[in-house]
Design brief:
The protein is 30% helix and 27% strand. The protein is an alpha/beta fold. The chain folds into 3 domains: 199 residues, no CATH class; 68 residues, no CATH class; 99 residues, 2-Layer Sandwich (Gyrase A, domain 2). Strands 1-4-3-2-5-9 form a 6-stranded mixed β-sheet, with no helix packed on it. The longest helix is centred in the middle third of the chain and has 38 residues.
């Protein structure tokens, strides 16, 4: 079979492709692929993606050595999201590390099937999920800060035609297998064998048997070899089925692309943002310093006659300025008479503060249900989870300096059937409270814990 050239190879210092760019792990090194005018173009190979200098927003295809590909069978349970079930399965395989919440991984449903459930008449349903978990340490050379997406290399390659298919290709000097079902990628497996020989064929047959035994790959419709026919040699005759030779194809995004942003890339971008912010502050500080120096020089170099003219203008407006100052002082004295402790909004904030703030320590299990304020008193009703928390809230109100303008009284809290304590709390201004005491009024729990 005559092999067609899938792309125009360009090397040297030629202009990089201007269309949608894929940084892809090719057979011998990293490549930059794009489609311009309907024709696929390739730049490379290069030792690292950085040497390709891709434009901003390029898609980086991750090679198999940077992720764990795990096809999973998970049961379909009503009310339980498939991602939660997949997470449990990945944790059981110890693939999410010590901190599963920060693990970077993605999944996609491949197919569903009915299965018999032990002890139940009705059959159940399970679905096959393609899961990918990024390895904890990704090589620095594979990180591009200007990249727009990070995808799995097998997902951005066109799948083979038919139902279940396997593609054998070379990736950065190593042979890998990409598995597809219904034109959907679900698994990539690198071969241990470095060369295509009888050992590689036995390894491939063992892997196919394992996937078939797990029900993941029910049948093999097509085995495609994408590579140099000279490298295959007699290997193709050792395969369990007749392989189909195909030329290499340009990568492309699937209908539902993933985005596996490595943690180190996020850390880099945050560090770059912090560095840019520090530079901005430094420039602003330098500008402010220069402005102060220029202003000082301008001030000391003003002619003496201009200074005298300014003093004359100030003497002319001295009378009006004195009136303004006296009015300002009058307003300041009037403002001093306003007691912020008698402000309704301030009171509402202060009595609610220990229930929602961390400083002072939050009093848990207590909530206010009503707040009433007038010139005679402040009246609160609420509910605590128990008497201890309610008494703790009473003690805080009586000791709080911002609420010391009131005398706080409360009857014994009433226990509800659910164990909660329903309470009432009344605050009377100190002046009014002392007047009532002289006339024979009751002064209970006066600012005492």
């Amino acid at each position: 079979m005559k092999k067609e050239k899938p792309a125009v190879q360009r090397k040297g210092k030629e202009k990089a492709p201007s269309g949608p760019v894929f940084v892809f792990p090719g057979p011998e090194g990293w490549e930059s692929w794009s489609v311009e005018g309907g024709a696929a173009q390739c730049v490379g190979p290069a030792e690292t993606p950085q040497k390709l200098r891709p434009p901003a927003g390029a898609t980086v295809a991750l090679p198999s050595r940077l992720f764990f590909s795990v096809p999973l069978w998970i049961p379909v349970e009503e009310g339980i999201p498939p991602r939660d079930l997949a997470k449990i399965a990945l944790e059981s395989k110890n693939l999410l590390g010590a901190n599963p919440e920060s693990a970077i991984w993605a999944m996609e449903s491949i197919r569903t099937e009915r299965i018999a459930r032990p002890g139940q008449d009705e059959p159940g349903t399970r679905q096959l999920e393609a899961c990918v978990v990024l390895s904890s340490a990704i090589e620095e050379e594979c990180i591009l800060e200007q990249a727009g997406r990070y995808e799995v290399a097998g997902r951005v390659l066109p799948p083979p035609g038919g139902g279940s298919g396997v593609v054998l290709r070379k990736e950065l000097g190593r042979w890998v297998l990409d598995f597809y079902v219904g034109n959907k990628w679900f698994h990539t497996q690198p071969l241990l064998a470095r060369v295509l020989d009888a050992g590689a064929a036995a390894e491939l047959r063992t892997l196919l048997a394992q996937l078939e035994g797990e029900g993941i790959l029910q049948r093999l419709d097509l085995l495609v070899f994408r590579g140099d026919e000279a490298e295959a040699g007699s290997f193709l005759s050792l395969l369990p089925c007749v392989p189909h030779m195909e030329p290499r194809m340009s990568p492309r995004l699937s209908a539902s692309p993933w985005d596996l942003q490595p943690p180190i890339l996020t850390e880099r971008r945050m560090a770059s943002a912090d560095q840019a912010k520090k530079k901005k502050y430094l420039r602003a500080g330098i500008l402010i310093y220069l402005g102060v120096v220029v202003s000082a020089l301008a001030y000391f170099l003003l002619p003496y006659l201009q200074l005298k003219a300014l003093e004359g203008k100030l003497r002319a407006i001295q009378g009006d300025a004195e009136k303004i100052r006296e009015a300002s002082m009058a307003w300041r004295e009037a403002g001093a008479l306003v007691n912020p402790k008698m402000n309704a909004f301030e009171l509402l904030w202060q009595v609610s503060r220990p229930l929602i703030e961390k400083d002072p320590g939050e009093i848990e299990g207590v909530r206010l249900t009503a707040f009433e304020y007038n010139a005679k008193h402040v009246f609160l009703t609420g509910e605590g989870k128990d008497l201890e928390q309610t008494e703790k809230y009473f003690a805080w109100v009586k000791k709080e300096p911002m609420l010391s303008a009131y005398q706080w009284n409360h009857p014994q809290p009433r226990l509800l059937p659910n164990g909660n304590a329903q309470f009432q709390l009344e605050g009377v201004p100190l002046g009014a409270a002392s007047g009532e005491g002289q006339e024979g009024g009751q002064d209970a729990n006066a600012n005492a814990p």
